[in-house]
Protein backbone atom coordinates (compact mmCIF):
# COMPACT_ATOMS: atom_id res chain seq x y z
CA UNK A 1 0.00 0.00 0.00
CA UNK A 2 2.84 2.41 0.90
CA UNK A 3 4.54 1.64 -2.42
CA UNK A 4 1.31 2.44 -4.27
CA UNK A 5 0.98 5.76 -2.43
CA UNK A 6 4.59 6.69 -3.26
CA UNK A 7 4.11 5.76 -6.92
CA UNK A 8 0.93 7.85 -7.07
CA UNK A 9 2.70 10.80 -5.47
CA UNK A 10 5.57 10.53 -7.94
CA UNK A 11 3.17 10.37 -10.88
CA UNK A 12 1.33 13.44 -9.62
CA UNK A 13 4.59 15.38 -9.37
CA UNK A 14 5.73 14.32 -12.84
CA UNK A 15 2.30 15.16 -14.26
CA UNK A 16 2.40 18.61 -12.66
CA UNK A 17 5.90 19.29 -13.96
CA UNK A 18 4.86 18.17 -17.42
CA UNK A 19 1.78 20.39 -17.63
CA UNK A 20 3.25 23.61 -16.22
CA UNK A 21 6.74 24.94 -15.70
CA UNK A 22 7.75 25.05 -12.04
CA UNK A 23 10.88 26.51 -10.58
CA UNK A 24 10.37 24.58 -7.34
CA UNK A 25 8.02 21.90 -6.11
CA UNK A 26 5.24 23.07 -3.83
CA UNK A 27 5.01 22.12 -0.17
CA UNK A 28 2.19 19.71 -0.99
CA UNK A 29 4.24 17.98 -3.68
CA UNK A 30 7.25 17.55 -1.38
CA UNK A 31 5.00 16.11 1.34
CA UNK A 32 3.58 13.69 -1.24
CA UNK A 33 7.13 12.61 -2.19
CA UNK A 34 8.17 11.91 1.42
CA UNK A 35 5.18 10.15 3.04
CA UNK A 36 7.34 7.98 5.32
CA UNK A 37 8.41 11.04 7.31
CA UNK A 38 6.08 11.56 10.28
CA UNK A 39 7.85 14.40 12.07
CA UNK A 40 7.96 18.18 11.73
CA UNK A 41 8.47 19.77 8.35
CA UNK A 42 10.18 22.92 7.17
CA UNK A 43 8.03 25.69 5.64
CA UNK A 44 8.83 24.41 2.13
CA UNK A 45 7.60 20.91 3.04
CA UNK A 46 10.93 19.15 3.45
CA UNK A 47 11.33 16.81 6.43
CA UNK A 48 12.88 18.70 9.33
CA UNK A 49 15.40 16.14 10.56
CA UNK A 50 16.31 17.27 14.12
CA UNK A 51 19.66 18.99 14.55
CA UNK A 52 20.63 16.57 17.33
CA UNK A 53 20.65 13.66 14.87
CA UNK A 54 22.55 15.65 12.23
CA UNK A 55 25.18 16.47 14.87
CA UNK A 56 25.50 12.85 16.01
CA UNK A 57 25.55 11.69 12.39
CA UNK A 58 28.96 13.35 12.01
CA UNK A 59 30.50 10.61 14.18
CA UNK A 60 29.00 7.74 12.16
CA UNK A 61 31.23 6.02 9.62
CA UNK A 62 30.19 5.80 5.98
CA UNK A 63 30.35 2.01 6.17
CA UNK A 64 28.07 1.84 9.20
CA UNK A 65 25.47 4.16 7.65
CA UNK A 66 25.66 2.34 4.32
CA UNK A 67 25.32 -1.09 5.95
CA UNK A 68 22.28 -0.14 8.03
CA UNK A 69 20.53 1.34 5.00
CA UNK A 70 21.37 -1.68 2.86
CA UNK A 71 19.94 -4.03 5.48
CA UNK A 72 16.74 -1.97 5.32
CA UNK A 73 16.52 -2.38 1.53
CA UNK A 74 18.09 0.95 0.53
CA UNK A 75 20.80 -0.43 -1.74
CA UNK A 76 21.78 2.66 -3.73
CA UNK A 77 22.63 5.36 -1.20
CA UNK A 78 26.40 5.85 -1.65
CA UNK A 79 28.40 7.82 -4.20
CA UNK A 80 32.19 8.01 -4.10
CA UNK A 81 35.05 9.46 -6.18
CA UNK A 82 34.80 13.15 -5.29
CA UNK A 83 37.11 16.15 -5.31
CA UNK A 84 37.00 17.98 -1.94
CA UNK A 85 38.07 21.44 -0.88
CA UNK A 86 38.88 20.18 2.64
CA UNK A 87 39.31 16.45 2.99
CA UNK A 88 39.39 16.51 6.81
CA UNK A 89 36.02 18.22 7.19
CA UNK A 90 32.74 16.31 7.64
CA UNK A 91 29.47 17.63 6.23
CA UNK A 92 25.97 16.79 7.44
CA UNK A 93 22.68 18.52 6.76
CA UNK A 94 19.30 18.51 5.03
CA UNK A 95 19.36 18.38 1.25
CA UNK A 96 18.02 21.17 -0.92
CA UNK A 97 18.01 19.35 -4.25
CA UNK A 98 18.55 21.10 -7.57
CA UNK A 99 18.41 19.76 -11.12
CA UNK A 100 20.29 21.31 -14.02
CA UNK A 101 19.94 20.31 -17.68
CA UNK A 102 21.63 21.12 -20.99
CA UNK A 103 20.07 24.34 -22.27
CA UNK A 104 17.08 24.15 -24.60
CA UNK A 105 16.06 27.74 -25.52
CA UNK A 106 12.27 27.32 -25.51
CA UNK A 107 12.09 25.58 -22.13
CA UNK A 108 14.81 27.80 -20.68
CA UNK A 109 12.68 30.84 -21.51
CA UNK A 110 9.60 29.32 -19.85
CA UNK A 111 11.50 28.65 -16.62
CA UNK A 112 13.16 32.07 -16.58
CA UNK A 113 9.81 33.79 -17.22
CA UNK A 114 8.29 31.77 -14.39
CA UNK A 115 11.12 32.74 -12.09
CA UNK A 116 10.76 36.41 -13.00
CA UNK A 117 7.02 36.23 -12.30
CA UNK A 118 7.80 34.76 -8.87
CA UNK A 119 10.18 37.62 -8.11
CA UNK A 120 13.38 35.58 -8.31
CA UNK A 121 16.48 37.71 -8.78
CA UNK A 122 19.75 37.15 -10.61
CA UNK A 123 20.96 34.16 -12.58
CA UNK A 124 19.11 30.86 -12.28
CA UNK A 125 22.08 29.27 -10.52
CA UNK A 126 21.61 31.75 -7.67
CA UNK A 127 17.90 30.94 -7.16
CA UNK A 128 18.58 27.79 -5.08
CA UNK A 129 20.82 29.83 -2.80
CA UNK A 130 17.94 32.16 -1.95
CA UNK A 131 15.95 29.29 -0.39
CA UNK A 132 18.76 27.97 1.85
CA UNK A 133 18.29 27.90 5.61
CA UNK A 134 20.79 27.03 8.40
CA UNK A 135 21.61 23.32 8.24
CA UNK A 136 20.77 22.94 4.55
CA UNK A 137 23.14 21.41 2.00
CA UNK A 138 22.88 22.58 -1.60
CA UNK A 139 22.90 19.29 -3.57
CA UNK A 140 22.88 19.67 -7.36
CA UNK A 141 22.93 17.36 -10.34
CA UNK A 142 24.60 19.21 -13.19
CA UNK A 143 25.13 15.96 -15.11
CA UNK A 144 28.89 15.92 -14.58
CA UNK A 145 29.56 18.96 -16.73
CA UNK A 146 32.99 20.44 -15.98
CA UNK A 147 33.96 22.95 -18.67
CA UNK A 148 31.33 25.72 -18.80
CA UNK A 149 29.47 23.87 -16.05
CA UNK A 150 30.74 25.76 -13.00
CA UNK A 151 27.73 26.34 -10.76
CA UNK A 152 29.41 28.71 -8.31
CA UNK A 153 32.51 30.79 -7.67
CA UNK A 154 33.63 32.49 -4.51
CA UNK A 155 30.88 35.15 -4.55
CA UNK A 156 28.07 32.59 -4.57
CA UNK A 157 30.08 30.41 -2.21
CA UNK A 158 30.10 33.19 0.38
CA UNK A 159 26.36 33.64 -0.02
CA UNK A 160 25.76 29.90 0.40
CA UNK A 161 27.76 29.75 3.60
CA UNK A 162 26.17 32.88 5.05
CA UNK A 163 22.71 31.36 4.61
CA UNK A 164 23.31 27.68 5.40
CA UNK A 165 26.53 27.61 7.45
CA UNK A 166 27.22 24.53 5.35
CA UNK A 167 28.72 23.44 2.05
CA UNK A 168 27.68 22.05 -1.32
CA UNK A 169 27.57 18.77 -3.22
CA UNK A 170 27.68 19.19 -6.99
CA UNK A 171 27.68 16.40 -9.55
CA UNK A 172 29.50 18.93 -11.69
CA UNK A 173 32.06 21.67 -11.18
CA UNK A 174 32.95 25.00 -9.56
CA UNK A 175 35.31 27.85 -10.33
CA UNK A 176 37.44 30.10 -8.08
CA UNK A 177 38.54 27.28 -5.79
CA UNK A 178 41.20 29.47 -4.20
CA UNK A 179 38.51 31.94 -3.21
CA UNK A 180 36.19 29.17 -2.01
CA UNK A 181 38.95 27.75 0.19
CA UNK A 182 39.17 31.10 1.99
CA UNK A 183 35.57 30.76 3.23
CA UNK A 184 36.13 29.37 6.72
CA UNK A 185 33.78 26.46 7.43
CA UNK A 186 32.71 26.04 3.80
CA UNK A 187 33.38 22.78 1.98
CA UNK A 188 32.48 21.31 -1.39
CA UNK A 189 32.18 17.82 -2.86
CA UNK A 190 32.51 18.24 -6.62
CA UNK A 191 33.42 16.26 -9.72
CA UNK A 192 35.85 18.81 -11.07
CA UNK A 193 37.14 22.37 -11.33
CA UNK A 194 37.37 24.73 -14.28
CA UNK A 195 38.03 28.48 -14.61
CA UNK A 196 35.21 28.88 -17.15
CA UNK A 197 31.80 30.45 -16.51
CA UNK A 198 28.52 28.56 -16.63
CA UNK A 199 27.18 28.34 -20.19
CA UNK A 200 24.57 26.39 -22.15
CA UNK A 201 22.86 25.10 -19.01
CA UNK A 202 19.40 25.70 -17.57
CA UNK A 203 17.54 25.08 -14.34
CA UNK A 204 15.39 21.95 -14.27
CA UNK A 205 13.92 22.46 -10.80
CA UNK A 206 14.49 23.16 -7.10
CA UNK A 207 13.60 20.58 -4.45
CA UNK A 208 12.83 17.92 -7.03
CA UNK A 209 14.04 14.30 -7.05
CA UNK A 210 17.54 14.21 -8.54
CA UNK A 211 20.21 11.67 -9.38
CA UNK A 212 23.69 11.98 -7.84
CA UNK A 213 25.73 9.23 -9.48
CA UNK A 214 24.06 6.01 -8.42
CA UNK A 215 21.82 7.62 -5.80
CA UNK A 216 18.31 9.04 -6.10
CA UNK A 217 18.14 12.00 -3.72
CA UNK A 218 14.89 13.52 -2.45
CA UNK A 219 14.48 16.98 -0.91
CA UNK A 220 15.09 16.79 2.83
CA UNK A 221 17.31 13.69 2.72
CA UNK A 222 20.09 13.80 5.31
CA UNK A 223 23.62 14.09 3.97
CA UNK A 224 26.66 12.37 5.47
CA UNK A 225 29.69 13.49 3.48
CA UNK A 226 33.27 12.53 4.31
CA UNK A 227 36.52 12.19 2.39
CA UNK A 228 35.59 8.63 1.35
CA UNK A 229 32.30 9.64 -0.24
CA UNK A 230 28.71 10.52 0.53
CA UNK A 231 25.78 8.57 1.96
CA UNK A 232 22.34 10.07 1.37
CA UNK A 233 19.92 8.97 4.09
CA UNK A 234 16.13 9.10 3.66
CA UNK A 235 14.80 11.43 6.34
CA UNK A 236 12.65 8.77 7.99
CA UNK A 237 15.73 6.52 8.36
CA UNK A 238 18.07 9.02 10.04
CA UNK A 239 17.25 8.23 13.66
CA UNK A 240 17.47 4.49 13.00
CA UNK A 241 20.83 4.88 11.26
CA UNK A 242 22.28 7.05 14.03
CA UNK A 243 21.11 5.00 17.01
CA UNK A 244 21.97 1.67 15.34
CA UNK A 245 25.46 2.86 14.48
CA UNK A 246 25.99 4.27 17.97
CA UNK A 247 24.87 0.96 19.49
CA UNK A 248 27.26 -0.97 17.25
CA UNK A 249 30.08 1.34 18.40
CA UNK A 250 29.19 0.66 22.05
CA UNK A 251 29.18 -3.10 21.44
CA UNK A 252 32.59 -2.83 19.79
CA UNK A 253 34.02 -0.73 22.63
CA UNK A 254 32.76 -3.24 25.20
CA UNK A 255 34.03 -6.22 23.19
CA UNK A 256 37.46 -4.70 22.65
CA UNK A 257 37.84 -3.93 26.34
CA UNK A 258 36.82 -7.42 27.42
CA UNK A 259 39.17 -8.99 24.85
CA UNK A 260 42.08 -6.92 26.17
CA UNK A 261 41.17 -8.01 29.69
CA UNK A 262 41.08 -11.64 28.55
CA UNK A 263 37.59 -12.13 29.96
CA UNK A 264 36.21 -13.53 26.69
CA UNK A 265 37.68 -15.16 23.60
CA UNK A 266 37.31 -13.69 20.10
CA UNK A 267 34.95 -16.54 19.27
CA UNK A 268 32.64 -15.59 22.11
CA UNK A 269 32.57 -11.91 21.15
CA UNK A 270 32.20 -12.45 17.39
CA UNK A 271 29.24 -14.84 17.59
CA UNK A 272 25.73 -14.42 19.04
CA UNK A 273 26.26 -13.28 22.63
CA UNK A 274 25.22 -15.52 25.50
CA UNK A 275 22.87 -14.22 28.18
CA UNK A 276 25.85 -13.81 30.53
CA UNK A 277 27.69 -11.59 28.05
CA UNK A 278 24.53 -9.53 27.48
CA UNK A 279 24.16 -9.00 31.23
CA UNK A 280 27.82 -8.02 31.46
CA UNK A 281 27.33 -5.51 28.62
CA UNK A 282 24.33 -3.91 30.35
CA UNK A 283 26.33 -3.64 33.58
CA UNK A 284 29.22 -2.10 31.61
CA UNK A 285 26.83 0.52 30.20
CA UNK A 286 25.74 1.45 33.73
CA UNK A 287 29.37 1.76 34.78
CA UNK A 288 30.36 3.90 31.78
CA UNK A 289 27.61 6.52 31.22
CA UNK A 290 30.18 8.89 29.70
CA UNK A 291 30.54 6.53 26.73
CA UNK A 292 26.88 6.90 25.70
CA UNK A 293 26.43 9.20 22.67
CA UNK A 294 22.65 8.97 23.13
CA UNK A 295 20.46 9.40 26.20
CA UNK A 296 19.90 6.28 28.30
CA UNK A 297 16.18 6.57 27.55
CA UNK A 298 16.91 6.42 23.81
CA UNK A 299 19.18 3.44 24.33
CA UNK A 300 16.64 1.57 26.48
CA UNK A 301 13.89 2.16 23.89
CA UNK A 302 16.19 1.01 21.09
CA UNK A 303 17.23 -2.13 22.93
CA UNK A 304 13.59 -3.20 23.35
CA UNK A 305 13.57 -3.82 19.60
CA UNK A 306 17.16 -5.05 19.28
CA UNK A 307 17.74 -8.75 18.62
CA UNK A 308 21.48 -8.41 19.36
TrEMBL record:
Keywords: Magnesium, Metal-binding, Signal. Its cofactor is Mg(2+). SUPFAM superfamilies: RraA-like. Mg(2+) binds at residue 176. Residues 1-21 form the signal peptide. One of its GO terms (molecular function) is metal ion binding. This is RraA family protein. It comes from Chryseolinea soli.
